[in-house]
Amino acid sequence: METSIFLAKVIGIYLAIEGLSLLINKKYIVKSVKGLLTSKGTIYVFSFFVLLLGIILVVSHNIWTSDWRGVITVIGWLVLIKGAVNALFPRIGTAAAEKFAPTKWYGITGLFFIVVGAYLAAKGFGWM
């Protein structure tokens, strides 16, 4: 349970800040993603960091429940899958990022991240 609480705090704070960033800095992020997509080596290196983070999350917290701990597990698996796909098939990850970059999804994703982040942080800090 201590691992779940710790991860809820960390992931919750991260998602809330990332969500706010997506809402506040959309133009900057779109330009940054477009610039990043021109550097295939950077994408490849980042994919291994994402893969490592996903492995750490899945190994340390593979708890399949229907409560907030299950949300952490699903996030861990999504991060692991994203890292593996980008490491094994970098063109697929690049193509997905290119489609996502110029769209309205930043606002929707930002709001989603804020909601999930606030939920996890509230659970982790005992506010809920």
Can you put this structure into words, describing what you see?
The protein has one domain. Helix content is 84%, strand content 0%. It is built from six helices and no strands.
Tell the overall outline: globular
Number of helices: 6
Helix content: over 70%
Number of domains: 1
**Overall pLDDT score:** 91
Q: Structural class, from secondary structure content? A: mainly alpha
**Beta-strand content bin:** under 5%
Low-confidence stretches: none
Strand tally: 0
| SSE series | HHHHHH
Integer-rounded radius of gyration: 15 Å
How would a crystallographer describe the biggest sheet? none
Distance between the termini: 16 Å
Element layout with pairings:
Elements: H1 2-24, H2 26-37, H3 40-60, H4 68-88, H5 90-100, H6 105-124
